[in-house]
Design goal:
The chain has 410 residues and is mostly helical. It has one domain: Na+/H+ antiporter like fold, CATH 1.20.1530.20. It is built from 17 helices and no strands.
Length: 410
Amino acid sequence: MQSVILEVAILILTGYLFGILVNKIGLPRVTGYIFAGLLLNPFTMHHVFHINLIEGTFVKSSTILTNLTLAVITFEVGGSLAIDAIKRLGKNVAYITFFEAEMAFLAVVTGLYLFFHFTGMFHGYWRVDLAIALVMGALAAPTDPSATLAVMKQYKARGEVSSMIMMVAAFDDALGIINFSIATALSAVLLSGAKIEVASLVLDPTKDILLSIGLGLVGGIVFKYMVHLVEGHDEDALMLPVVLGMLFLVFGLGQVLNVDSLLAVMTTGAVVVNWCSRKNQVFAVTDHIMELVFIVFFVVSGLKLDFSVLGGAIIVSIIFVLLRAVGKFLGVYIGASLSGASEKVKKYTAGGLIPQGGIVIGLSLLFASKPEFHQYGALIVSITIGATIFHEIIGPLASRLTLKAAGEIK
């Protein structure tokens, strides 16, 4: 049995080296981190190189690494929600977020329903066709801002398009949760023939979102006072444990209380950036460790991709990726046009909303864990994993090209 610490060392150093290598040919470092994870993936190592640098047991137990890094990444995303910026772009953010999320949902539902229907993938059972299409449509709405954030950090991107991308990515997770809750409820009805209860379709997702935001608000208030306790002491040394301790506390409480931990930590980041007088010192801490966080997060994401379950679902995954991209670009254009956003925002924002990972894999696993969906759970997970491979490879490239075209990368 290998040492877990040795495996962590291999993970970090391989990610670092691949990041440096791909950056030399003009690609974002995060792309190298993803390729490092795919290379170290036990499936790749066993079937291609016939060795096991990273054991399957490590991959299965690596969820804690994913959660810890997600807490830091999501906090940084919440930190992009400064009230001044929201006031300046508020109407634009609201319109663009709604239309890009819901147009992606509609594009995927419509496209996949027609694909399932005409190919007879589910033997012509329209209820199954629509049920699976609804769930996949709900998974199209969220954007994983991790890759875009990594590109912005590396190239020091600044400007209205960068700000818009981060704010939209932060808000469309909430819409994604609402879409998913409603879609799974409708899918259960379609597959079982049970009666639709409108109250549960509205109340359950609303309750989840409000509780998550409430936890984040309380966490942000406590965070603010914990940071002030550091004042007058060895501030540089003590700020790191305070920041990480509070982030992990909020994330962990979200898991215990069965609410959305990511939304809670994101809310905490928004509270800190708007109401903590020492916010610059707080975010300086996360800025210093972000590259390590990105390496661990994206390499582990590559490790967790299970190639063996892709199979025939890869075609559906490709269609999902294409339909989602069409919905995102169309939605941004409609939202930006209706809100009177600048031509630059209208033209370039959608390119930064392509990345997707973390949250949608979690939602698909949640779907598969429910008894009423056991027959189709593995299919949904495999389609989602296939789409994640494409999104995690093309997402950072799309973000870099978009921000460069917008003139926000020097």
